[in-house]
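Re: the pair you flagged

First of the two:
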Amino acid sequence: MSYQPSYRAGSGTSPLAVVSLVFGILAWCVLPFLGAIVAIVCGHLARSEIRRSPVESRVEGDGMALAGLVLGYAQLVLCVLGAFVLVAMMVFGFTLWGWH
């Protein structure tokens, strides 16, 4: 009686989850606004792909997609806050220093 180890070949990691994580990291290093948008879109697509995959061949990478989403949303919030601060400094700063 020979013992054959049974294993199932997994589907692997979702490529969209990897893209989300990579662009989430790039959003903090190289591409502040664009990288955040790509990380958010790919992160949501990856999580929906992972949830829709059948149980027998489960696609992995939910943690990477979630990390890409967190990095992307954090960078996007900082970009929007930075834009508001820049506009406020231009509007209120010029009037405070007498520039019209």
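Second of the two:
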Amino acid sequence: MVKPTKEEKLTFNLQSQDLAAIDLLTKNGFYRNRSDFVQKSIHDQLNKQAGYLNELVERDVKQRRGVIGLMRLDNKTIQKWADSQKSVSLVVYGLLLIPDDVEMAELTQVVKSIEVYGITRASKAIKAHYNLR
């Protein structure tokens, strides 16, 4: 079963002097730990770019079938699109959930492309077909 999550684990490299500075700030109580520093730094940068990000997302969502937040792509939705003979391209900003019972054949007949900025929870086969992480 596909389980939604709010966080995704990332791995990245830092220069030793940057890591030392983070550790010093953490030791002196500015941050709880390294993760707290990284999360707050990312939030600060995203807040600085919020206006530009909103414009980009709105433009992209208008051009394609888009969702901001959570999209659950289930058999009912796929069948509805198939019945109306719609072929869709999806863009998701947030979390895309595709349950395990969704059949690849039906999905690929209706959904031509999927682009996710965030987290994808789907079978390995679906992720591979649509080149999703």
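Residues 15-48 form one domain.

-B.
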